[in-house]
Amino acid sequence: MDTHAEWETIHSAREWGKWPRTELNQFLTTLGAKQKFAGSKVLDLGCGNGANLWLMGWLQMECVGIDISESAITKTKAWLDRMEISATLAVADMRNIPFEDNTFDVVTDVCSIQCMPTDDVAKVFKEAHRVLKPGGYVFTMFRSSSSWLEPNLPYVNRLSRPELTNAMSPFTIEATEVTEQTLFNLSVSIQHHLIVGRK
Ligand SMILES: C[S@@+](CC[C@H](N)C(=O)[O-])C[C@H]1O[C@@H](n2cnc3c(N)ncnc32)[C@H](O)[C@@H]1O
Asked: What pTM value is reported for the model?
């Protein structure tokens, strides 16, 4: 599912996750051992309610977020204002990122590109590559093809690692991991690829 109307229906009807994902924190702090991200300009793709921008603002990154849903952007703005974090926000489609080439130090994707149909995944990574400065980082958290899929999440795509790294082919892959969360007494396993690429 990738249409504006469908996401607007979800975001206007209910709250999305308010807490930053631990996996994003892992990326920022692990890489932070050799690179400090404070002051880096970051673009968060599909920022939802702004939970991950909140973390990156707290880490003193210069925050920019886009989402296809107006309600998501309105809620992100309200939340970041409340947390006294400044950010540039825009309603936009990540397949056509409305920023100049070579603008960002970091592009983050926390489970948003995985909502694209397979044919569009490579297109989004190509856009992410375009707006990154040379040497800039992309981080993606993307549902693995071996993961269980909740029946109420028909819009989540799943790819194998070769399929995903192939879609990220403009980048040099710097790190690749898989995280696992089990549910219902270990009876199901939700797995995400965590991949860091560099332009
Ligand atoms: C699964 S949610 C993840 C939200 C957020 N990254 C988080 O971790 O809470 C996917 C988000 O991507 C947004 N989205 C879906 N298709 C999009 C598109 N084509 N362009 C920009 N945002 C999109 C949705 O509105 C939604 O906020």
From this structure: 0.96
